[in-house]
Fold this protein.
Amino acid sequence: MTLASIIKTTLLTLASATLVGAESPFPAMQSLTVPLTGRAETNLAHPSGGTGDPDGSGTVKLVITPVDRQVCFDFRLARVSDPLMAHIRKAPRLMNGPPIVSLFTGIGSSMDGCAEANTGQLAEMIVHPSDFYVSVSTTEFPDGALRGQL
């Protein structure tokens, strides 16, 4: 072994040890269970809510992992027509916001899985969860059947 290769190996070992001990700038992971109701859905004509499916309900378990750039989900829905799509959107309670993460789209989509997302937005969801909500659309309520604030 040459002196140059010994120095290179030593530097790589030190750098690896430093990186292993370094903390990520993002929260590691957060698990949330979010209740979903039709009463929580809102629109411009009904800003106080109640525009979703009055009989529908459910929950979604979210596992948010910014370092892996993904959010995993597991929906449990009751008394709703066929689900069309679900998104995580950014807006406080009783406000509507843009979609941030598409969880699933299309009739017959899996109600559990993982979706890729922006690391910074996922970290923000962990730090400020009440700024985000999950919205589920169905064939009967395509503009929003169920909603739940994180």
